[in-house]
Amino acid sequence: MKVAVVQQPPVYLDKAKSIERAVELIGEAAGGGCSLIVFPETWLPGYPTFVWRLPPGAGMTKTDELFALAQANSVNLAKDDLAPVKEAAREHGVVIVLGHQELDGTVSGSTLYNSAAIIDADGTLLNNHRKLMPTNPERMVWGFGDGSTLNVVDTAVGRIGSLICWENYMPLARAALYAQNIDIYTAPTWDSGQTWLATMQHIAREGGCWVIGCATAIEAADIPETLPYRDELFPNADEWINAGDAVVYRPFGGVQAGPMHREKGLLITDIDVDAARASRRKFDVCGHYARPDVFRLNVNRKPQTPVVFEE
Q1: Which of 83, 99, 109, 148 could cross-link 303 (Cys pair, CB 3.0–4.6 Å)?
Q2: Is 286 labeled as catalytic in the residue annotation?
Q3: pTM of this prediction exceeds 0.85
């Protein structure tokens, strides 16, 4: 089957226009015969790179203002904000992995999460993984996910799971996915470069699965002029804010396609889903190569909530 990895920027911090762009990109990929389409980390409505560019303390007021803008443009699943994307999946019969910034619409109504949605070819939202551990200044923007979303799910194209950005450096989180018979491992990210690509190849070898890594390829010229503090955040008009480096690795290692560096478009390649399970004959980290008499992982899948209402 054909896979498309999106390496186009969203309309930065504009949820409505970014959803429109996502639907267009889905149609373009589906028109090229793709059955699986993968978007980068918080592609919708855009990664909050401002937290890395504003100094702690001195930039707090500016961070608050930009956070409020990001919050107003985040995805509320309780209001079915992904309905147009789900409808595009159903219309074209494609599976979609979409990195998005999620607003908690059911408890606090305020906290944001870094999430990855897996949408099946019939438009069903099968899983919405919330990043377990935001990294460094990301903790000024996002809350922590829990084990209830650490799932590999059956889709029309195979069993798919996601870990987001530096979660992929967490060996126990990876093991939790490997233990669920994973075919396609997606790693939406903001990271790029040789160190990240080496991690993607390692995971393909360790997990015996297809690995898709993708960050948002975006230039300073892609940031709207209306963004508060734009010139302070992005003073170099020619800057590549992120090079993208979309890539697909084969089970047990080896590049299938990419990396797509400082280039916008769709990275499209063919993959044989069945090759994942066959590759684990040599090394099956949660099968014949495991030693449960020596090592054992316990995963708490209970949803964590600060308030329980009892009637």
Answers
A1: 148
A2: no
A3: yes
